[in-house]
Hints:
Layout: E1 2-9, H1 15-28, E2 41-66, E3 71-84, H2 86-90, E4 99-101, E5 108-109, H3 113-137, E6 145-148, E7 157-172, E8 181-186, E9 192-194, H4 201-209, H5 222-240, H6 245-254, H7 291-300, H8 306-317, H9 323-327, H10 329-338, H11 342-353, H12 360-366
Parallel strand pairs: 1-7, 2-5
Antiparallel strand pairs: 1-4, 2-3, 2-6, 2-7, 7-8, 8-9
Helix pairs in contact: 7-8, 8-10, 10-11, 11-12
Amino acid sequence: xxxxxxxxxxxxxxxxxxxxxxxxxxxxxxxxxxxxxxxxxxxxxxxxxxxxxxxxxxxxxxxxxxxxxxxxxxxxxxxxxxxxxxxxxxxxxxxxxxxxxxxxxxxxxxxxxxxxxxxxxxxxxxxxxxxxxxxxxxxxxxxxxxxxxxxxxxxxxxxxxxxxxxxxxxxxxxxxxxxxxxxxxxxxxxxxxxxxxxxxxxxxxxxxxxxxxxxxxxxxxxxxxxxxxxxxxxxxxxxxxxxxxxxxxxxxxxxxxxxxxxxxxxxxxxxxxxxxxxxxxxxxxxxxxxxxxxxxxxxxxxxxxxxxxxxxxxxxxxxxxxxxxxxxxxxxxxxxxxxxxxxxxxxxxxxxxxxxxxxxxxxxxxx
Length: 367
């Protein structure tokens, strides 16, 4: 039985207040020029739709054949899975604070997202079914075995939930390029999910030197890097921006009390120095007010703090990372294990002990 429920996050935002928040955010951010021409600006009232799928299939049939022995089986399995839109979690929206509503006809941002999410949900169910079958027959998938899961249908319980959040979309005309500067303000929690505006001269100069981080940071979280590193750039540019990395490293080796260097004091508080001075990555506090920033800091310290890889593994397991992040789940654990995290070692052992992932060499390594 399929059921669709609709919910709305209520808010008290209006266009006048939204415009004030926009102006204030632009004025406080040195990355942008502090001059807004309202004749260039349009504000649209739209909605973001977040999904949740919760489904079970009872007695789902499958066919299994051992090609070497010609043994064949017809079996049945029960499959259950819950999938929640990662942006619902990353934007820190609490589902039980939303109000049930009738089916709406809102102007939605990204109307394709729901269908794409449902396809991913079905793909995950198929993978879950394959894992269950291989475990049941204690085999590792190979050319020696044929497994037919068939179509996933006949859901005994299928619940779809869609949560709507009202947002203001700010479009600031850009005469230098085809696309406008687009910012999105959450009306519910009164913060910007994205903020774009013409760059200040100083920020343009900064980008000439620091175009991208040395550590890999996904696009969903890259804005934190630019905010942090730009703050450091402003406070240290006169003394550091033209200094070769090898010169900096020589100074570190000669000093037993490197933290006392006043010209580098901001480095310990922000982001950019970590890419050149590895030993300070171990000291960086990864506590953060928001989940998004916590994930960013975990990527930043992945190779230097034992808990960062494990944290990213947990995030990937919950579906909070992008495709590359999901593919790197085991790599995240390996980073943590190399830095001495025993919980990561235990999970790695269990992972490679599963029939679908079985690897004797890896089992010996993590036993």
